[in-house]
Amino acid sequence: MNQQAPDEHPDVILCPDGPMLLRGEHVIEDEDGKEHSTTRPVSAVCRCGASGIKPWCDGTHKTMRKRPGR
Ligand code: FES
């Protein structure tokens, strides 16, 4: 059962076969240890590895084959 109040939202949302959405200010560390900060209301972090603007999602995941069972 969802106990969240209607005006509350999670800070992190994992999109199936897509990015991780972050709400509010965050600092992301990429695979080289470089930090990327964001202050956008919502930021999308690439989880597929194919983005041309890593660590951020550029929508490339939409062109990739979905995982079986999805
Ligand atoms: S998750 Fe969107 S480009 Fe990787």
Automatic annotation (TrEMBL):
Q: Name one GO cellular component term.
A: cytoplasm
GO terms of molecular function: 2 iron, 2 sulfur cluster binding; metal ion binding
Q: Which UniProt keywords apply?
A: 2Fe-2S, Iron, Iron-sulfur, Metal-binding
* Top-level taxon of origin: Bacteria
**Metal-binding among the record's keywords?**
yes
Q: Which residues form the Iron-binding zinc finger CDGSH type domain?
A: 23-67
Know the name of this protein?
A: CDGSH iron-sulfur domain-containing protein
Record the organism. Candidatus Brachybacterium intestinipullorum
Specify the taxonomic lineage. Bacteria, Bacillati, Actinomycetota, Actinomycetes, Micrococcales
